[in-house]
Amino acid sequence: MAFLVSLGVAVGFLCVLCSFFRRWNELRYWRRGLPPGTMGWPVVGDTIEFLRRGPDFMKKYGSLFTSHLLGSPCRERGALHVNRWILMNEEKGLVPGYPRAMAELLGEWNVTAVQGAAHRVVRGAMLSAVGPVAVRERFFPTLDEFIRSHLCEWGAGGAIVDVQEKAREMVFSLALRLIAGIETGETAAELKAEFFKLLRGTLSLAVALPGSAYRRGLQARNRITRFLRALIEERRRWRRSPSAPKGSSDILDLLLREEEEGEQEQEHHQTRPKLTEDQMIDLLIAIMVAGFDNVYATAMMAIKYLYDHPSALQELRHSEIRRRKSSPDEALTWGDYTSMGFTRAVILETMRLATIVNGLMRKTTDDIPINGFVVPKGWKIYVHTREANYDSLRNLEKHQYFMLFGCGGRLCPGKELSMVQLSLFLHHFLIKYRWEEAGGDKIAYFPRVEAPRGLRMRLWTN
Ligand code: HEM
């Protein structure tokens, strides 16, 4: 009996404590004029409910509400024109506001972490490294050759293959190839292991407890940084040697060539900004991380959707392009790529249906009135772009609320690179293989699109 009474008292005390903490958290963030909402628990806020309920969480209070996610107070989900206005108005004090773990692990010079003049410098370097001109004029043959040869090893004779794992491997190795000409071997394997630790850490709470994903991510970042610093040094030495070729074969070469040109310009008192070594390292890490999830998930989901929709698969067979080639394995040209209108539509439709990008985050640098409410300084805004996906869109890319690649001054610099990678992948994959689903594997759509146990397919070569 005494035990039951003590238990009752303890439970009662715990309930009072819990409601005190929740109330305290509400009062802490209370301001006049805020949209409705709850702030949840101290520190974690409503993060657990947000991750558990995913997009349904956004329907909680209608189109606009306040909450507390991933350690920050937030306002979320506006109408499409409000979302667009938020993304287009960085200079009014709506700057990128990604979670702390992501910012720390991607580095202080990561393009999403910098603003104003620094953003212009880093974004300019990013565009010259992976933007549309670089893809068309420098990387297209490398991308085509790499994807063709990578696909040879996927499987044959009805073997069961985890398409998710293969797509991950392909996208990561391709990034390494573009960055530093590394594809396979011990270095690539070590980097891959560190890279996945870093990636997992970006979606965690920024508390470096022993064994936590965040701490492992920090350790991985240190190792990757050390590796890149040594690589840059070695490359600089090699470029100075008389036998080094003058052109640039990968992104690192390109950055170092720009560095050398910048030095010459400075000798002639011109002032084109050049990247520091730390900026270069964060830029290379950003190239590895920024597109990784989105590109492999789109590749995987396109294979799945095409299997579910044979008529689309039939239309995608690129019979026109194939007629022009003497063998199915022949390299594609830029002209072939630009003629793949239906392929582009399949890729965008895959990204739309699978909701590859759910939303984008901004932070206020001042009190900002938005749609009749004032968002206090220092708050985060979760712009839930998913809604635009279900608007009745005909020509996706021309629609003003097309935000699969963001919009405004932060529009994705890797858009064309991703479209080329995915188009080449689909072309060569469906020339090489027939496939069917092997396990009816589940797909999780939130917080990122993935098959938690892999996506198994049977593959036959054509
Ligand atoms: C299917 C593939 C991709 C999708 C759906 C995608 C989507 C996006 C979106 C929505 C943004 C805007 C973020 C914001 O406004 O806060 C963005 C920005 C960015 N993306 Fe991509 N992306 C993809 C591939 C890539 C690739 C392959 C790279 C690099 C190699 C890349 C590099 C970046 C960078 C550096 C930014 C930040 C730009 C800035 O802040 O100025 N992305 N991307």
UniProtKB/TrEMBL annotation:
Its cofactor is heme. Transmembrane segments: none annotated. Pfam families: p450 (PF00067). Keywords: Heme, Iron, Metal-binding, Monooxygenase, Oxidoreductase. GO terms for biological process: brassinosteroid biosynthetic process; brassinosteroid homeostasis; sterol metabolic process. It comes from the Eukaryota. Belongs to the cytochrome P450 family. This is Uncharacterized protein. It comes from Spirodela intermedia (Intermediate duckweed).
